[in-house]
Amino acid sequence: MASPIRILTAVPICDGHDSAINTINLEFIRHGIEVIYLGYHRSVGDIVRAAIQEDVRAIGISSYNGGHIEFFAEVVDLLRKRGASDIKVFGGGGGTITHDDAVTMRRKGVDQIFFAGTSLAEMTDYVRKNYGKQRMKRAPAKSPDIELARKLTGIEDKPDRAKRSVSKRQRKKHQTSKVIGFTGPGGAGKTTLIDEVVLRFLNQNPKGRIAILSHDPSVVGEGALLGDRATMINSQDDRVFMRSMATRGQAGGLSPATHDCLARLAQSNFDYVIIETVGTGQEAMPFRKNGIVDLTVLVMNPDYGSRLQLQKIVMLDLADIVVVNKSDLQRARTAHSEIEQRLEQNRRDQRLVDTVAKRHRDPGVDRLFDLICGGEQSQRGKARNKS
Ligand code: B12
Ligand SMILES: Nc1nc2c(ncn2[C@@H]2O[C@H](COP(=O)(O)OP(=O)(O)OP(=O)(O)O)[C@@H](O)[C@H]2O)c(=O)[nH]1
Ligand SMILES: [Mg+2]
User: Fold this and answer.
1) Residue 286: what pLDDT?
2) Pocket lining: 9 vs ligand 1, CB cutoff 6 Å
């Protein structure tokens, strides 16, 4: 079966009109399209970087506050400058974009503009027809990010073939990055927390690079809304390579291609590779069989129920670090002491950290960052310090 079409959607800088694109995103995913949503108020640079790293077929921009002729043209130009003009640009913006504007925009390299009154079905058909065919032979990659992004696409589209070609031992041997796995129930704050950890990394390591492999579930019809970039504001940076993956039918929090994509990232000269699973259930052990993850972090919401629920969460036995996030909530102190008792029974050197990920400069997140990045240094960090 053909792989799902991947597109990126966004709203330009100084524009908060996200209602239209939210509706359109939903329609796309209902029809089998994987949508990486970057959010609103996004710059040309952020949009182009994300499109390249995600290796999407096209960028859909929804623009209402004016300046669309220049903004769309700048996206097309920057794609060309970065060697990614095989990523196409389309969009809309109700009555704000006139028919005359659209003619100018097409002349400047925009594929298509949709006007007020267009049905959602028409847009979906357009995407399928124009961005659904297999790509022709592509020009050689002009940058390491483009090359890596294409490799990940290759693995994701044919996960079985990649699995056979790389053994677990080989993967570990070539690994240059420290790999950190984040998991935990839906909405516990994994994405917010990772973004804060990344911010600290970028501030402390002026030359460091980090990769994020982030997962969201595929829905009926096999599309997916991959929305982590909209939350990870700090991670939209040239020193962060981020890739969003849909689970594509696999249960347990990861996708069939995760292990091989992770292996590829871990060999690609990043200081750290962070992987986030989808929100998981009590029985989930997403990293157990994976020889690549060096450190596992379980992010808990204080509202897990009672002590009885804690007995059932398998990852509490396996995680290296357990985080009680949302420590600003009332139940957090009880949660801390209940989880502490639960971990004591394991008699392992597991760490327990309280955080408020959505607060800037939270001391709990500082502590988590030290636990993750303070000790053992990645191969790349060591090499950089020697030179
Ligand atoms: C809803 C709305 C709001 C809501 C936004 C809610 C939200 N979270 O999105 C609120 C009330 C918050 C709002 C605020 C403002 N708004 Co307002 N808003 C609108 C309104 C009424 C509808 C826009 C909309 O969502 N339409 C629904 C979509 C689904 O339909 P559509 O627009 O016809 O789009 C079609 C196609 O173009 C296509 N399409 C659209 N985008 C995309 C993208 C892709 C990828 C594709 C494939 C297709 C596609 O889909 C539709 C299919 O039929 C328009 C007026 C209008 N009637 O267009 C003004 C309008 C856009 N707003 C306007 C203004 C000025 C503002 C404010 C600055 C007002 C103020 N002074 O505070 C603020 C700015 C907010 C901000 N931070 O940017 C002006 C913009 C004028 C301009 N550009 O010169 C407009 C045109 C109203 C007007 N006539 O003055 N607004
Ligand atoms: N009160 C409070 N809310 C928080 C905190 N951290 C994150 N949130 C909010 O919790 C919600 C979910 O955060 P995410 O970071 O998306 O959670 P997640 O675990 O990645 O969610 P999934 O990937 O969907 O499982 C968002 O609305 C955050 O703003 C916190 O420390 N306190
Ligand atoms: Mg998340």
Assistant:
1) 84
2) yes
Q: Which of 285, 312, 283, 280 is nearest to 299 (CA)?
A: 280
Please report, for residues 189, 314, 337, the alpha-carbon distance to residue 185 in angstroms, rounded to integers and kept in the order given.
9, 12, 19
Residue ID of nearest Cα to ligand 1 atom 13: 17
C-beta of 38 in contact with ligand 1 (< 6 A): no
Which residue's structure tokens are 């909530």? 329
Pinpoint the alpha helices (H) of 82-158.
99-107, 120-131, 144-157
Q: What percent of the chain has pLDDT over 90?
A: 80
Phi, psi angle pair for 178, to nearest 5°: -85, 130
Decide whether any atom of ligand 1 lies within 6 Å of the 13 Cβ: no
Query: Average per-residue pLDDT in the chain?
Result: 91
Distance 330 CA to ligand 1 centre (A): 39
Q: pLDDT digit string (tens) for 342-373?
A: 999 999 999 999 999 999 999 999 999 999 99
Contacts of 12 (CB under 8 A, 6+ apart): 41, 42, 61, 63, 65, 67, 68, 71
